[in-house]
């Protein structure tokens, strides 16, 4: 049951007709990444590059590139894992319907890793410079590992139960790294951070193993948002359908025996510049100091294959991870967040910038009109636990008002529902000067910005207009107003030149000019952008621009604003400044020459003909 290593998985995909081998020489510097992204966009097959320029190891990509492929890879285990999760939520289910859970004990048995003295991964040694030097985007600071499984154990509680596996960025070359060093970029709210803190407190170095490849379930486990205290290695066994074999090393960390590669080393308090690197929000993450891993050994199996992906503006291959995880965990949401029915971390908005949710509003059932109360409790819980704590904008509506099947995954309908019901005097709640996603540069500084809970409950407050209101003369530099969706207006603004942490008085002037516009109350959401045509093209563009290029506390203005007892509100509409700021990281732009080369691969006679 389940694939134990990369080759097994690729052989099965090939037999199924879902793998393309490319024997033509492919450059890991930009070209391989462009191919992967183009084939993913075309919903094409998994890829195996057998002839990698400057490297003896083959590379594989797009393994997880479609929902159908993910379901095929985990076809033997996914239903049982779902049942096991539900069993944890509702133990009485096993008594009521025992026939549905017959496979659960065996799945639970697979959680325990199997200890070995040696394995395929330790058959050979190599060096960092001999590994595939993958760069995804033109401004990347060096070669990176894009599908790593970074394994560490708690110094206070060593062993599998105290372990963590995370998918943290690993830089192999560039900047100031020597051949026995790699950069380890782990962000806030990550499990390895607790282990690192414990080691530093003890005055010790933290042992870290970075596995690449192996059982596909290990890659999923590395990105799985499991509750703190539940080790990813246990989940990997359940999803993989077998006990994960681990090579036990004297005075060292266990190594996944079936991995294709493993980089073993230690981190201390030493840091070096890491980045820049094209990232999943759709911009570069810039150069910052991060921990340095001092490399002791680099192992690889004899038939080693280097799995990789590329990240960039969503959707990308990691979008499939998110969709797959949502299917596995959607029923767990109410058990983790009491009163929350569903959540949607919006992938096309970069995942963390925008979180949509549906919660209960039951605190005052006898009131004539519902207003957000329990929803605010739900919102605080979402912003204080697990990976949802990284959300920047949280839009949360009441389940009791959704009488026609509205949900937070139908984004146009959900936004309409929220904008119809929000009380702009009352329902925008800001959290200022707090931590935000490391990759988000819209805030006050590195890892620092604000959050907004946008809550709505009760009956409709307004009918949303689909027509442009009669506007007064706008301040100089503002033009091209248009309706994007019911109740949402876009306005082109002049180039933003404000410094970080400062608001733009021109936006206050815009709000004042709109105050007496006829029909403005039916347009409660106004977004100022650089390129209205691009933003208005579709919801993907609108969400990406609006929520990745703004910080709530700094970039929200209003029409008829007031502050009372430190609460901010707007009488008629709120304005989001979603222009690119001078201090934000640049968006990801392709290399035209490489794109042309890949075009040729898709021409008649090329290996990608008929695919891209």
Structure characterization notes:
By secondary structure, this protein is an alpha+beta fold. Among the domains are: 6-73 and 110-308, Electron Transport, Fmn-binding Protein, Chain A (Pnp Oxidase, Chain A), CATH 2.30.110.10; 332-456, UbiD C-terminal domain-like (3-Layer(aba) Sandwich). It is built from 18 helices and 28 strands. The strands form six sheets. Strands 5, 6, 7, 8, 9, 10, 11, 14 and 17 form a nine-stranded antiparallel sheet that branches. Strand 1, helix 2 (31-41) and strand 2 form a beta-alpha-beta unit. The chain is globular, with a radius of gyration of 25 Å.
Features:
single chain, 612 residues, alpha+beta, Pnp Oxidase, Chain A, UbiD C-terminal domain-like, nine-stranded antiparallel sheet, five-stranded mixed sheet, 28 strands
List the helices and strands and how they pair.
Elements: H1 6-15, E1 19-22, H2 31-41, E2 46-49, E3 59-61, H3 67-73, H4 78-89, H5 92-96, H6 104-109, E4 114-116, E5 124-125, E6 144-145, E7 148-153, E8 163-166, E9 169-171, E10 181-185, H7 191-202, E11 206-212, H8 216-223, H9 232-240, E12 245-247, E13 255-256, E14 261-274, E15 277-278, E16 284-285, E17 288-300, E18 306-308, H10 317-329, H11 333-336, E19 340-345, E20 354-359, H12 374-382, E21 393-398, H13 411-421, E22 428-435, E23 448-456, E24 479-485, E25 488-492, H14 505-514, E26 525-529, H15 532-536, H16 539-548, H17 552-555, E27 556-564, E28 567-577, H18 592-601
Parallel strand pairs: 1-2, 3-18, 4-12, 20-21, 21-23, 25-26, 26-28
Antiparallel strand pairs: 2-3, 5-17, 6-9, 7-8, 7-11, 9-10, 10-17, 11-14, 12-13, 14-17, 15-16, 19-20, 22-23, 24-25, 27-28
């Amino acid at each position: 049951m389940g694939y134990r290593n990369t080759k097994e998985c690729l052989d099965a995909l090939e037999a199924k007709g879902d793998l393309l081998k490319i024997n033509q020489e492919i450059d890991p510097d930009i070209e391989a990444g462009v191919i992967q992204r183009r084939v993913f966009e075309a919903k094409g097959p998994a890829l195996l590059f057998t002839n990698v320029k400057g490297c003896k190891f083959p590379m594989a990509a797009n393994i997880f590139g479609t929902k159908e492929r993910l379901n095929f890879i985990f076809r033997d285990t996914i239903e049982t894992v779902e049942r096991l999760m539900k069993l944890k939520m509702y133990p009485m289910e096993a008594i009521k319907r025992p026939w549905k859970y017959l496979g659960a004990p065996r799945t639970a048995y697979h959680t325990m890793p199997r200890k070995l003295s040696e394995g395929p991964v330790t058959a050979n040694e190599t060096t960092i410079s001999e590994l595939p030097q993958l760069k995804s985007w033109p401004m990347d600071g060096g070669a990176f590992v894009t599908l790593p499984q970074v394994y560490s154990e708690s110094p206070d509680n060593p062993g599998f139960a105290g372990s963590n596996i995370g998918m943290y960025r690993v830089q192999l070359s560039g900047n100031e790294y020597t051949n026995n060093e790699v950069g380890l970029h782990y962000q806030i709210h990550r499990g390895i951070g607790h282990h690192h803190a414990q080691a530093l407190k003890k005055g010790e170095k933290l042992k870290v193993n970075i596995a690449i490849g192996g059982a596909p379930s290990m890659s999923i486990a590395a990105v799985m948002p499991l509750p703190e205290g539940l080790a990813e290695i246990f989940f990997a066994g359940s999803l993989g359908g077998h006990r994960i074999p681990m090579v036990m090393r004297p005075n060292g960390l266990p190594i996944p025996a079936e991995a294709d590669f493993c980089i073993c080393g230690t981190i201390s308090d030493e840091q070096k510049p890491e980045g820049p690197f094209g990232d999943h929000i759709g911009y570069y993450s810039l150069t910052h100091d991060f921990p340095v891993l001092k490399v002791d050994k680099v192992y690889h199996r004899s038939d080693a294959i280097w799995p990789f992906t590329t990240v960039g503006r969503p959707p990308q291959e990691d979008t499939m991870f998110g969709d797959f995880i949502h299917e596995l965990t959607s029923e767990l949401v109410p058990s983790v967040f009491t009163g929350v029915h569903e959540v949607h971390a919006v992938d096309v908005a970069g995942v963390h910038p925008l979180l949509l949710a549906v919660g209960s509003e039951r605190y005052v059932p006898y009131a004539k009109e519902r207003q957000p109360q329990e929803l605010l409790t739900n919102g605080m819980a979402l912003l204080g636990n697990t990976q949802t704590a990284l959300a920047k904008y949280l839009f949360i509506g009441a389940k009791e008002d959704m009488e026609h099947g509205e949900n937070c995954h139908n984004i146009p309908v959900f936004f309409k529902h929220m904008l119809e019901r929000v009380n702009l005097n009352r329902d925008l709640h800001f959290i200022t000067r707090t931590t935000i996603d490391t990759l988000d540069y819209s805030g006050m500084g590195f890892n620092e910005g604000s959050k907004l809970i946008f809550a709505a409950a009760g009956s409709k407050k307004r009918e949303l207009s689909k027509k442009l209101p009669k506007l007064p003369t706008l301040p100089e530099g503002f033009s091209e107003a248009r309706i994007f969706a019911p109740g949402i207006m876009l306005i082109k603004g002049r180039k933003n030149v404000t410094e970080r942490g400062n608001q733009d008085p021109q936006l206050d002037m815009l709000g004042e000019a709109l105050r007496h516009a006829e029909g403005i109350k039916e347009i409660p959401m106004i977004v100022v952008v650089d390129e209205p045509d691009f933003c208005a093209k579709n919801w993907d563009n609108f969400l990406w621009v609006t929520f990745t290029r703004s910080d709530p506390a700094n970039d929200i203005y209003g029409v008829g604003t007031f502050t009372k007892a430190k609460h901010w509100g707007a009488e008629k509409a709120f304005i989001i400044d979603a222009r690119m700021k001078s201090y934000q990281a640049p968006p990801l732009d392709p290399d035209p020459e490489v794109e042309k080369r890949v075009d040729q691969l898709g021409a008649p006679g090329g290996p990608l003909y008929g695919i891209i």
